[in-house]
Design a protein that fits this description.
By secondary structure, the protein is of the alpha+beta class. It has helices at 24-38, 76-89, 110-127, 182-192, 208-214, 231-243, 258-267, 289-297, and strands at 49-51, 54-64, 70-71, 74-75, 93-105, 131-139, 147-157, 173-176, 221-225, 247-250, 281-284, 306-311, 324-327, 333-335.
Length: 348
Amino acid sequence: MSIQCPTPNHEDEVVLLGHGAGGRLTAELLESLVLPAVGGGAGPLEDAALLPSHPSLVMSTDSFVVSPLFFPGGDIGSLAVHGTVNDLAMRGAWPLALSVSLIVEEGLPLAELRSVMVSLGKAAQNVGVPVITGDTKVVGRGAADRLFINTTGIGQRHELLCLSAALARPGDAVLLSGPIGLHGTTVLSTREGLGFESDIASDTRPLHRLVRALAPLGEAVHVLRDPTRGGLAAALNEIARDSSAAVEIEEHAVPVPQAVASACDLLGLDPLVVANEGCLVAFVDATAAEAALAAMRSLPEGAQAVRIGEVLPQGQGQGPQGRVTMRTLVGARRIVEMPLGEQLPRIC
């Protein structure tokens, strides 16, 4: 008598926190369920989309569920503005307008809601983008966790920039505008009372001015991505996959603040998978790398910009395309995997 394993019953599967982490589980959910339902899926999944009838306009939408609502360096209000402005910027767009929708849990103190909205308004004002529409819903106790915010942004694309995660090329320099891991470790430490929040603060900030500084380099700038959920590891893997490129970074070149490194050592985390909200990774033609670094370093948000790696030439036995490797401190290579699921839930 033969024994066969039962066929998995997908109807019994449920959504996991990891499905929202920006890693492999997120990609599986999108490819198997979300995109087929809406007729999408052609081409790379970008941070923002060009409007089909007006390709000079860019649109992005995002939802923010960070817990706690307030953390060193920011709060859910400013984060909502920065996150959407940055998604537009990664397609080379200057923000024109935002919408803001609130889902508020019954019982949230009005003083906290007021503080969030004041912060959101100040962040939008500092960016120079008006909030032109929105919506407010209140749900019963337990139906949400205090406050969720959804923002949608419309932007005008810089005419000199044509950016996509599919445009990385062999020989490109990989640049990073600043240190990694600050946002994720700050939020987690504040939520769990780990004590690191006294030494670090979230890096949440807008990056559209940094992108404008890169615009004069035009076609030499191929890819921009802000490494939020899933951190630098997820961003690099997405670009390598969509460009069919072999990407290699240098461990010694990746800036990891000491407080972040200490927190990650304590928690067993890799800083490469920790979320960021105020830095970007850029793939640029190697001949323009120094000019790109100089442009980024001319602004406060890019003052610590560094070169961290390159896209390897094809056909030199450097391993399969679509893979990210890291040259370690001892000279060995290790594969930088796409994160599987959620290691730091509710950080954006």
